[in-house]
Amino acid sequence: MYARKGIKLGLFGLVLLACNKAPVPVWDTTPYVLEYGDLPEPELPADNPLTVQGVKLGRMLFYETRLSGDNSMACASCHKQENAFTDTNRFSTGIDGLKGERQAMSAVNMLWNTNGYFWDGRADKLREQSLLPIQDELEMHETLPNVVEKLEQDTMYTRQFFRVFGTEEITAHKISLALEQFMNSIVSYRSKYDQYLAGTTMLTEQEERGMELFFDEYNPFFPETSGADCGHCHSGKTFISQEYMNNGLDSIYNDQGRKKVTGQAGDAGAMKVTTLRNIALTPPYMHDGRFKTLEEVINHYNSGLQNSAALNPALAMTMGTGLMLDAQDKADLIAFLHTLTDQALITDPRYASPF
Q1: Strand, helix or coil at 285?
Q2: 62 closest CA partner among 75, 81, 47, 77
Q3: Against a cut of 0.85, is the pTM above it?
Q4: What is the DSSP letter of 271?
Q5: Cα atoms in the Cβ-side hemisphere of radius 13 Å centred on 248
Q6: CA 208: distance to chain centroid?
Q7: What DSSP element (H or E) covers 291?
Q8: Are 310 and 267 in contact (CB under 8 A)?
Q9: For residue 23, what pLDDT is reported?
Q10: CA gyration radius for the chain?
Q11: CA distances from residue 37 to 66, 196, 323 in whole angstroms, order as listed
Q12: Are 300 and 291 a contacting pair, CB within 8 Å?
């Protein structure tokens, strides 16, 4: 009697275990539906298409502190959603209390960045960029083998890697592909300016005048109609350029910028031209965060350019007169730049921490 009762309890326990057992993961290549509004159609990596599970894994890794040496810091520590995926500190502080050497760049609209990553473009692909901060002694200060080992000990990750890649094996390359997928999914396309272009809202008179100044070309011969010519470098709906430019910050360079990668003298002090989308959310400005406000940035282009042999020719043309912007012009420009803020981006749950 007791033996039979014991058998019954044992079977009941097995049933409970079976009910509580996590489902076996299934390889899932369901495409991720990318939303980008009226932005130009992006060119997705042919060897790393966005999938629902791949983007999910990338988001997990983006917010995963175990990617750092002391398990305290994630990619999201320096690329905060509320700041359009950048850091409002001039230089981010790594796990050892050391500060970086350049201002953190915004990880938004990466699909429209087609000419290298980092301020100097030293990484050709986003997947390559994603692994370098992990290994940087000033930042996350960890080794890739250690990261793999830590993730391998967590069935949540081994199962998610299976869903994405069809195997539980975790490698640094797969980590980079997943991070690339998530960052490529972060798209800013719902600003007031986008709504204006779609005809669903109107700009104020000040914002509209600022827009005209932004896109109008500099003309020293007709000061009354001369613009700020910002659109020369920050063009199209993405407000980005694929160029690296010396924008006259210094006559003598503490940071050689693009020249460190190419070795070309003409690239001295040149840095990637970044997007102006969400620019009001991403102070401080420039590669070294020297400007705290948008007004300081405009003052630099208006009358503060430093001459050098590598100065961008289009900017050098303005040095004789400056941009001739008065106080009202500057205020109008700033008002327009604020229309590039995408409030939906900074609260979108698709980009928030999954933990």
Answers
A1: strand
A2: 75
A3: yes
A4: E
A5: 20
A6: 28
A7: none
A8: yes
A9: 74
A10: 25
A11: 35, 13, 33
A12: yes
Tell whether the model's pLDDT for residue 254 goes beyond 60.
yes
The C-alpha atoms of residue 47 and residue 270 are separated, in whole angstroms, by 31
For tokens 């972060």, name the residue.
186
Q: What is the pLDDT of residue 34?
A: 98
Token pair recorded at residue 25: 């993961």
Q: List C-alpha distances in Å: 141 to 62, 100, 134, 218, 245.
A: 16, 12, 6, 46, 30
Closest CA to 58 of 78, 75, 81: 75
The answer to whether 280 touches 337, Cβ cutoff 8 Å, is: yes
> Which amino acid appears at position 29 of this protein?
T
Which pairs from 89-97 meet CB under 8 Å and 24+ separation?
A: 89/289, 90/284, 90/288, 90/289, 90/290, 91/289, 92/139, 94/136, 94/137, 94/138, 94/139, 94/140, 94/141, 95/68, 95/69, 95/70, 95/139, 95/140, 95/141, 96/69, 96/137, 96/138, 96/141
Spatial distance between the Cα atoms of 175 and 165, rounded to a whole number of angstroms = 11
Residues 51-81: tens digit of each pLDDT? 999 999 999 999 999 999 999 999 999 999 9
Tokens linked to 84: 């359009």
DSSP 8-state class, residue 282: S
Specify the pLDDT at position 21.
62
Domains by residue range for the chain, with CATH = 22-39+46-188 (1.10.760.10), 192-338 (1.10.760.10)
Euclidean distance between CA atoms 38 and 235, whole angstroms: 15
